[in-house]
């Protein structure tokens, strides 16, 4: 290009920039910002923030449009509150597999960590105990749980889909798969479950104890312990045996039972008509004093109403469907997240939030609290039971609207 042409090119570029600035200013002046917003929003469904330039994981962006800034009400810096089990490393073992969601994966979850665990038929999650409590929910197959307390009372029980168990911290226990394939959710009342000194396996202990001490302790020959595995296998293959257990101190039952059978408990009433829920806390499962839960099914387009939990963080596991939620953490800070089956999440202590079913099938999830009770405060009920003139003045809404708010918790609001 001739040198003489360069000033002219620069002038043309300056004029183009000037024209673009003037057009933008004119659109703003005449209310044209809506046109700009439409252009910005137009790419969310195809996984594009604004113009879509730059590196991106297109498949993830399609699944998580709210991370692209789709919700205009989102504001401020809110930490990540979501982790997918699919992002966790899966440990493949002889007889099953396991993958976790712990505080190193989801740093905002201080109270709760969890795992998905899978056992083939007969395989055993070996004998062990924890310095934290363990809560479990069966969602595929059937398992045998076995545990012994400090008084020598024991429990052996078959659990099927929907059934739950709870082992207090320090209680000795094990789990065995009974069907061809068995899977369950494990929950622990400590976010840092992988810390040293959290789990203690019996074969690990025995293999690190002098054999003459073992012989003296058990009253057996030292040779018995030559085949104890080291390192411990965590999950091991086995066959199902039908031997029954007896003991001088009897079985655990009633309020001391470690198991909750779903068939023995009716579902909760849901005034909003948008689905079903089951509350499993110390009211219905007395032994479970540090973990409370709610198992929720929300119909398509339904809404878990705006609420907060006054007594704990809320940890979530999504088992089926697609969800959207916005969490409000105070100081004008809010962020929206999209969830699918296999995702976990956490709502900070006392943060306001909702959950919406945005899919075509029922949305199923489990809410977990480090507490003896599942508690929530409904935003609508709070406003309805506050003097209507105060609500109307604060929110700048008509008085008759404030007077008409529903005074009964809706919990799961039916979609339309």
Number of helices: 8
What kind of sheet is the major sheet?
7 strands, antiparallel
With strands numbered from the N-terminus, the spatial order across the biggest sheet is 2-3-4-11-6-9-14
CATH superfamily of the largest domain: Jelly Rolls
Task: Quickly name the level 1 CATH class of the largest domain.
Answer: Mainly Beta
> Would you identify the regions where 5 or more consecutive residues have pLDDT less than 50?
1-40
What does this protein structure show overall?
This protein has 3 domains: 36 residues, no CATH class; 178 residues, Jelly Rolls (Sandwich), CATH 2.60.120; 149 residues, Jelly Rolls, CATH 2.60.120.10. Helices cover 18% and strands 33% of the residues. It has 8 helices and 25 strands. Strands 2-3-4-11-6-9-14 form a 7-stranded antiparallel sheet, with no helix packed on it.
Summarize it.
This protein is an alpha+beta fold and 416 residues long. It has 3 domains: 36 residues, no CATH class; 178 residues, Jelly Rolls (Sandwich), CATH 2.60.120.10; 149 residues, Sandwich (Jelly Rolls), CATH 2.60.120.
List descriptors.
Jelly Rolls; disordered N terminus; seven-stranded antiparallel β-sheet; single chain; elongated; 8 helices; six-stranded antiparallel β-sheet; 416 residues; 3 domains; alpha+beta
Set out the fold topology.
Elements: H1 5-29, H2 33-41, H3 58-63, E1 82-84, E2 91-93, E3 96-101, E4 113-120, E5 124-130, E6 134-140, E7 142-148, E8 154-160, E9 164-167, E10 172-177, E11 181-188, E12 199-201, H4 202-207, H5 211-218, E13 235-236, E14 259-260, E15 275-280, E16 292-298, E17 303-308, E18 314-320, E19 322-330, E20 333-340, E21 343-347, E22 352-357, E23 363-369, E24 377-378, H6 379-384, H7 388-395, H8 399-403, E25 412-413
Antiparallel strand pairs: 1-21, 2-3, 3-4, 4-11, 5-10, 5-12, 5-13, 6-9, 6-11, 7-8, 7-10, 9-14, 15-16, 16-23, 17-22, 17-24, 17-25, 18-21, 18-23, 19-20, 19-22
